[in-house]
Amino acid sequence: MKILAIETSCDDTCVAVVERDKKLNFRILANVISSQVKLHAKYGGIYPFLAKREHQKNLPIVFKKALKQARNPKIDAIAVTNGPGLEPCLWTGVNFAKKLSRQRNLPIIPVNHIEAHILVNFLTTNYKLQTTNYLFPAVCLVVSGGHTQLILMRGIGKYKILGETRDDAAGECLDKAARILGLEYPGGPAIAEQARQWKFQIHPVKCRFAAISPKAKLFNRAKLPRPMMYSKDYDFSFSGLKTAVLYKVKSEKRKAKNIKYIREMCVEIQQAVIDVLLKKTIKAARDYGARTIILGGGVTANKELQKQFQQRIKKEIPDSLFLIPYSRFCTDNAAMVGVTACFHRKKIKNWKDIEVDANLRIDGII
Ligand code: KG4
Ligand code: ZN
C-alpha cells in the first residue's frame, strides 16, 4: 500500500510518499519539506495567514517534487493532517487532499498531528513498523512550537492527556526568549547553539529552592524560574519563564548585547525548560508504571534534552524503554503522517467527510 501524506499544520509545507507491505516493512519513497523559516524570521514568529499563502504557493511544487522523487508510484490513499494546528494552514493541506481525492478517486485518512509526532517513534532502525503490547503503558511527551502535552498511551489509538501547558508551549517560549535576546527564529535551535558554545555545562536541578545545582551556580550567574516544576499535577506553564527572561534582560540592559551574557542566558533558559519537562515526565512514568517513555515534537530535537533524558531515565527508571525519533523526524514532516496513516488504515474516509479541527484532541482517537 502506497500513501501520499500531506502536512501543513504550522509553517512547514511537507509531502511524503510512504509504502507499507504486509510484513510491516515500511519505506519512505519521498519526504519533501519546504520550510518557511526565512519568511517568518523577518517577523520573529508565525503569522497564520502569511503561512497559509505560502502553503498555497508551495504545496503544488512540493507535491510534484515528492512524486518525482518517489518515481511516480501508483498511490492507494491520501493521508492528511486535519488538526491540531493553525486553522488556515490546516485547511490548505486538507483542501489540497480533497481535490486530489476527487480527481483520482482516492480515499483519505485524516491524521492527528500530535499522534503523528508519537507514532513516528515506531519506525525502528530497519524501518519496520513495530508495536508490541510489551511497550504499554507508555508515557509520551510531545513538545513543539504549539503544544506541550504529557500523554498516557495504552496502545495505538488509546490515549489520555495527563497534563499540558496552561499558557505558552515550550517551543513558543524558546522562540520568544530567543527574540528577546536578539537571536534568530526559530529560537529553539538558536538557543541550543549558543548554549552549546557556552564553555561549562550545567547540571539538572537537584535542590528545590535554589533551582540551579551548586556546580552550575559557580559558573553561571543567570538564574531563571522553573514554573510549576513541583506542582502535583502534570501541567506546565512556560509564559512566566519568558517574562522572567524579558525582565532580566531589561534590568541588565548594559550586558544584554554581550555574547558571553547571551550564551549564559541560553544555557539557563534551555536548562529551565529541560528541568521542568524531565521532572514531570519522570513523575508521570513512575505514577503510571510506564514501560516506555516516548518523546516527540520539534523541541525534542534538542541534543542536550535528549542526553539528559537518556541519563536520568537510565538512572531513575532503568527498566523502561526510551524512544526518541530520528532527528529529522522530530520537527514537522509528512513521513510521520504517513506512518500514522499506516497504523490507522481503517479510518479511511470519503473526501466529503474530512473536516479541520484546529483544537483536535488526541484523547478521542480510537
Ligand atoms: O514540531 P515542530 O516542528 O512544529 C510544531 O508543531 O510546532 O516544532 C517547532 C518548535 C519550534 O518552537 C522550534 O524552536 C523548536 O521546535 N525546535 C527546537 C529545536 N529544533 C526545533 N527547540 C530546541 N532545540 C532544538 N534543536
Ligand atoms: Zn509539530
User: Oligomeric form of this entry?
Assistant: single chain
- Uncertain stretches of 5 or more adjacent residues: 203-214
For the record, what CATH class of the largest domain applies? Alpha Beta
Taken together, the total number of domains comes to 2
Strand portion: 15-25%
User: What is the C-alpha radius of gyration, as a whole number of Å?
Assistant: 21 Å
- Tell me what the CATH architecture of the largest domain is: 2-Layer Sandwich
Brief descriptors of the model:
366 residues; alpha/beta; Nucleotidyltransferase, domain 5; 2 domains; five-stranded mixed β-sheet; 11 helices; 40% helix; globular; binds 5'-O-[(R)-(carboxyoxy)(hydroxy)phosphoryl]adenosine; binds zinc ion
Structure overview:
The protein has 366 residues and is of the alpha/beta class. It has helices at residues 37-41, 48-69, 87-104, 113-119, 170-180, 187-197, 214-219, 239-251, 259-287, 303-316, 335-343, and strands at residues 2-7, 12-20, 26-35, 77-83, 108-112, 138-143, 148-155, 158-164, 292-296, 321-323. The strands form two sheets. The chain has a five-stranded mixed beta sheet, with helices on both faces. Helix 3 (87-104) links the parallel strand 4 and strand 5. Helix 5 (170-180) packs parallel to helix 8 (239-251). The two termini are 22 Å apart. Bound molecules: 5'-O-[(R)-(carboxyoxy)(hydroxy)phosphoryl]adenosine (KG4) and zinc ion (ZN).
